[in-house]
Write a structure and sequence with these properties.
29 strands, mainly beta, single chain, 352 residues, five-stranded antiparallel β-sheet, globular, 2 domains, four-stranded antiparallel β-sheet, Methylamine Dehydrogenase, Chain H
Length: 352
């Protein structure tokens, strides 16, 4: 009787989700999950409108070319919260960082059920990252700290002061590297020793470091957006930069002026990074520092490279008020598919 109830419950969830599915040809999909196992795919978290409490979650299944919107609401019957910021997969759990709601919602991926909520009062969480020690690290913009989360006990076990408005993170050489954006005034990367949960070093980079990507066992890429200064005077802006940092010596090994104010970055396994700069996506080979400008044309918000399928995913938030889009490109930059998403699609996470 219990097994039948579980199957019935899951069938109801799947049926509800079917009504919010769409694809490039607006076809209505049939149920892609006849069992409780969710196929491999890509989660997309949406900011929604600031203060509107309408952040949402979508799921894209590349093998069937279907997108399912409003997944979280269909699962729980509730809104995800205010400003969906980041999404992380760890084991079978999906961590959804909801910035303006000061929390992280956690789902079970295998059966799309709600697991638990991580409350972060007044923290304004930005990004989450799981290091090799199985602990999660959460950047908090409100007080310039990184919270250390133990998934076993589901508790915050330590708080590490870093720079102002910490943003993205990356792990290398038993350390977590944290970009300190400073709301545009920061120019450092904090290096946290995961053994002691202390800042071991601080690396100076360009203005407004926002994104960090893993390149190899001893190298990371840091994207700096550049400072805006007086918004009414573009002449006092500083340009965007790309930095290559040696994670063993903490030295800046190379850098490139990008110009403008690039905001998002992703990387493939060939040490290429893809950077959105407002007019398109640039591709930079970080070994040769050769840059292909406008590798893909368009205005994009979120980026994610799928190394298994050799595809580049890009989201367009449009005006942040209407539904955005997901674009799927080949490794050569050719458009393969386009799908309608929710409002302000931002971060993505891939389930293999």
């Amino acid at each position: 009787m219990k097994a039948m109830s579980l199957k019935l419950c899951f069938a109801i969830v799947c049926s509800a989700i079917m009504f919010t599915a769409c694809s490039d040809d607006d076809s209505t999909p049939t149920d892609p999950t006849p069992t409780r196992d969710i196929p491999p795919g890509v989660y997309i978290i949406h900011e929604g409108g600031f203060g509107s409490n309408n952040a949402s979650l979508s799921y894209y299944i590349p093998d069937s070319n279907k997108v399912y919107n409003d997944v979280y609401k269909n699962i729980t019957g509730e809104s995800l919260g205010d400003v969906g910021q980041d999404i992380v997969i760890h084991g079978d759990l999906v961590y959804l960082v909801v910035n303006n709601s000061n929390k992280i919602e956690v789902l079970n991926h295998s059966d799309w059920t709600h697991s638990h909520t991580i409350e972060l009062p007044n923290a304004q969480p930005r990004y989450m990252y799981f290091a090799r020690n199985d602990l999660g690290y959460i950047t908090n913009s409100a007080d310039g700290t990184v919270s250390v989360y133990d998934p076993a006990s589901k508790t915050i076990t330590a708080t590490v002061p870093v720079g102002n408005n910490p943003e993205d993170m990356e792990y290398s050489q038993s350390h977590v590297f944290v970009a300190n954006g400073g709301f545009g005034s920061g120019n450092t990367v904090s290096v946290i020793n995961i053994g002691s949960n202390t800042v071991e070093a601080t690396i100076t980079v360009g203005d407004y470091p926002q994104a960090i990507e893993y390149l190899s066992t001893s190298k990371i890429a840091v994207l700096c957006t550049g400072a805006y200064g007086d918004f009414n005077d573009p002449n006092d802006d500083t340009p965007g930069y790309l930095y290559i940092i040696n994670t063993q010596t903490y030295a800046v090994e190379d850098s490139m002026e990008l110009g403008g104010h690039p905001t998002h970055m992703t990387a493939d396994l060939g040490r290429n990074v893809y950077i959105s700069d407002g007019t398109g996506i640039d591709k930079v080979n970080t070994t040769t520092m050769q840059r292909t400008q406008n590798f893909v044309n368009g205005t994009f918000y979120g980026l994610k490279y799928d190394s298994q399928r050799n595809r580049l995913y890009a989201t367009d938030a449009k005006d942040f008020q209407q539904d955005g889009d997901l674009y799927v490109y080949s490794s050569a930059g050719s458009l393969l598919f386009k799908y309608t998403l929710g409002i302000a699609p931002r971060a993505m996470a891939i389930v293999e």
